[in-house]
Amino acid sequence: xxxxxxxxxRIARELQDGYYVNLGIGIPTLVANYIPDGIDVMLxxxxxxxxxxxxxxxxxxxxxxxxxxxxTITARKGAAIFDSALSFAMIRGGHVxxxxxxxxxxDASGNIASWMVPGKIVxxxxxxxxxxxxxxxxxxxxxxxAKDGKSKLLPACTLPLTGAACIQRVLTDLxxxxxxxxxxxxxxxxxxxxxxxxxxxxxxxxxxPDHVPEMKFV
Length: 218
Hints:
4 helices; 14% helix
């Protein structure tokens, strides 16, 4: 299975030069450490920073510089700091090219459930609803199964939705999959992970092409 760092490295390959990218809480924030050489992207946090840099060293740490997940961060050259109103105007106005989010569930129709589990205390949806509605492209990063072993890639989400028919690509610790025509399409598999294992752990309809390459990490 992929480590958290390998998942972030694989997502970083999806970035393109000139992209404005929002990184959600959890594994997505690690993408900031793996921006490929030769491309320039601006990372956005919905609490009001455009131009997130890598995570700080002890010498760089500033407790006033945080992302939406309350993690300390750095700002790259050319960064801008602004209020939440302007930040969400950017998101809702469709000016974010790519959003990377975690999720509890994703289904074969491209629906995402990422903000609450009934019966558990939640602070609210946060910016996720705006992000899935406003971004040009969304990639979900999550484990393939829950702690109890049940699949998180479903025929239909069972938890309250964050957004409907908005997810086209999912990276899990086992595989990279696209979503189209009511099915998950297997594109890549983690090193050492068999297609049979992915099929067993995918509850939604799964399409398996003739050739499914292993992901490569240098």
